Amino acid sequence: MQQSGSIADRQEPHTSSSSVSLAWNTVSGATGYNVYQGATKVQSVTGTSATVSSLAASTSYTFQITATNSAGESAKSATVTGTTTASGTGGGSTLPKHAVTGYWQNFNNGATVQKISAVQAQYDIIAVAFASATTTPGAVTFSLDSAGLGGYTVDQFKADIAAKKAAGKKVIISIGGETGTVSVNDSTSATNFANSVYSLMTTYGFDGVDIDLENGLNATYMTQALRSLSTKAGSSLIITMAPQTIDMQSTSNTYFQTALNIKDILTVVNMQYYNSGSMLGCDGQVYSQGTVNFLTALACIQLQGGLAASQVGLGLPASTSGAGSGYVSPTIVNNALDCLTAGTNCGTFKPSKTYPDLRGAMTWSTNWDATAGNAWSNSVGPKVHALP
Fold first, then answer.
1. What's the whole-model pTM score?
2. What is the enclosing helix (H) or strand (E) of 332?
3. H-only helix segments in 113-269
4. Is 281:293 a contact under the CB 8 Å cutoff?
5. pLDDT by residue for the chain (388 residues), tens digit each?
6. Burial of 187 (0-12, 13-18, 19+ CB in 10 A)
7. CA dihedral 103, 105, 106, 107 (to 10 degrees)
8. β-bridge mates for residue 14, sequence order
9. Phi (first) and psi of residue 222, to 5 degrees
10. With the CA atoms of 280, 283, 284 and 288 taken in that order, what torsion angle do they form, in degrees rounded to the nearest 10?
11. What is the pLDDT of residue 86?
């Protein structure tokens, strides 16, 4: 085809230890684009972004883009170079030491409708909610709710993800949710899960996956699935989990078992300290949700149960509308962070030691946060990022 318009890259490539994410300008009349790594065509896409994966760490790669339509293929763009980062552990090597996770709603339930580009800058990990099950056991798919999100297009969505990644953020796909029914209970479904999640990562540029299965999981086969995904995606893979409080009361629970089984590749567990009844803390005492004690005494179970402090985060609603119960003010969240990391601002429960490497906090959701004037991220975000 005759090229009309420039395919020049809009920004520097975003890199991980095993991937390079590219974004370029739209070409008038193009119906697709080819991505060349060196002289080899490695991808064909319809949008204006792509992530090339399965690359070696600490290695420079060159890329060019061509535009295509029924008339043929344009000349190649100028060459751009992307250098992968060094290998890390657990997908956390390129994250801040202390990170804030926010769920982004792919639906309109009365909260502020956002594009990914509008997600507040305080969020280091953006979890797109949700992927859903298919008729193939274990497999998941994702469909952007373009109509519900005001005409948000898939190409805009992909470009916004690429831009967030270029700004140093991580964007992952969340599996499950309150009504999610994804079932991984044998080797076949584990393989289907890994293959389908990796396909979504390649298609949209996601950095990893969030496991938010609130109807149970099989530790053996979810472990198999996540290890298979890690093999495909490489050491930069982000894996987060969002169990309910009941799921993390004991290391014998399958959710806790899964977290421990993948400890070497796990980024963070952001337990949901909401929509919960009273629970036991690590001291054997019963604590009610909505208090500093509830946050610190339940986090203590994970911290004493085998997870690294860097793999533990506090998950709270961004507003009273974000959950049926368990909302606490950002001040309470910040007090719990102080208690766990420095032993200050505790309630009646005080951990036997401090955990200065605590990863941070999570909220449901960036949309409800925006509805409430970003009160949560404007308070908790700076607090997390200023932790020791």
1. 0.77
2. helix 330-342
3. 154-166, 187-204, 219-233, 254-261
4. yes
5. 444 445 554 456 666 556 677 888 888 899 999 999 999 998 888 878 777 876 776 788 999 999 999 999 999 999 998 887 654 445 555 789 999 999 999 999 999 999 999 999 999 999 999 999 999 999 999 999 999 999 999 999 999 999 999 999 999 999 986 555 788 999 999 999 999 999 999 999 999 999 998 677 999 999 999 999 999 999 899 999 999 999 999 999 999 999 999 999 999 999 999 999 999 999 999 999 999 999 999 999 999 999 999 999 999 999 999 999 999 999 999 999 999 999 999 999 999 999 999 999 999 999 999 999 999 999 999 999 999 8
6. middle
7. 160
8. 21
9. -70, -35
10. -30
11. 54
How many angstroms separate the first and last alpha carbons of the chain? 56
Query: In the annotation, is 178 catalytic?
Result: no
Q: Which of 12, 73, 178, 214 is catalytic?
A: 214
**E strand or H helix at 104, and its extent?**
strand 99-105
- Burial of 341 (C-beta count, 10 Å sphere; 0-12/13-18/19+): buried
Backbone conformation region of residue 345, classed left if phi is above 0, alpha if psi is from -120 to 50, else beta: left
Q: Which token pair is 245?
A: 């409080």
Query: How many Å apart are CA 149 and CA 108, to the nearest integer?
Result: 7
In order, the DSSP letters of 368-380 are HHHHTTTHHHHHH
Angstrom CA distances, 169 to 85, 89, 113, 117, 126, stand at: 15, 17, 20, 11, 8
Helix (H, G, I), strand (E, B) or coil at 197: helix
Beta pairing class for 80-83 and 99-105: unpaired
Token pair in block for residue 179: 């009504």
Buried/exposed code over 110-146 (b: 16+ C-beta within 10 A; e: otherwise): ebbbbebeebbebbbbbbbbbbbbeeebbbbebebee
* Helices 292-304/330-342 angle, 10° precision: 40
Place of tokens 């890329």: 63
Beta bridge partners of 141: 132
In 3D space, the residue among 34, 25, 14 whose CA is nearest the CA of residue 82 turns out to be 14
DSSP letters of 289-323? SSSHHHHHHHHHHHHHTT--GGGEEEEEESSGGGS
381: number of Cβ within 10 Å: 24
The 10 Å Cβ neighbour count of residue 31 is 12
